[in-house]
# Entry
Amino acid sequence: MLIFIFILFYTNKNICSFLFLFFYIQIKIYINIIMKQVLQKIKMEKQEHLILAVLLIIYILLDVQLPMMLTRAVDTIYGKIVLFVLAINIFFNVNKVAGVLAFVAAYTMIDRASKASGTFAMTNYLPSEAKKVLDFSKFNDYPYSLEEEEVARMAPIIQNDTSTGSSYKPILDSLHDAAPTDYDGVV
# Structure
């Protein structure tokens, strides 16, 4: 089909213009029919539903910042559950279009609250504990050092617990009112 139009374009520009105009009009007619059907299906029953839909669209499109108290409440798991329960309620009890807009607005509110409170940055930019452990193990991964080689080459220390009967006796200097080492009382 495209090759045929391409050949017509170079051979006869009038026929090609006519075909283009014909297809353009046909597409416009089909789009118009489809849009009328869609608009009839999503027709708002009450004025309040229309106002709710317009308010939700305004909230979604404009960058409305939430108060910090509401941000902290929405950024919890309970706040997210409450928002989605409200969106489900609007979807089933009010209007389907307003319900879909409520879902989009709830997602937008949760996203904005997480960015305002900082949990978005913490989850996306701070490393996890597993990544920290991996990094620390890389930092502590040293090769076999010169000190370790020298200690390994040294002669082992020999310890004998047997005393040889030395000729000297240890003496204890004055304790200056300190408790003796074998004292069990209150110090």
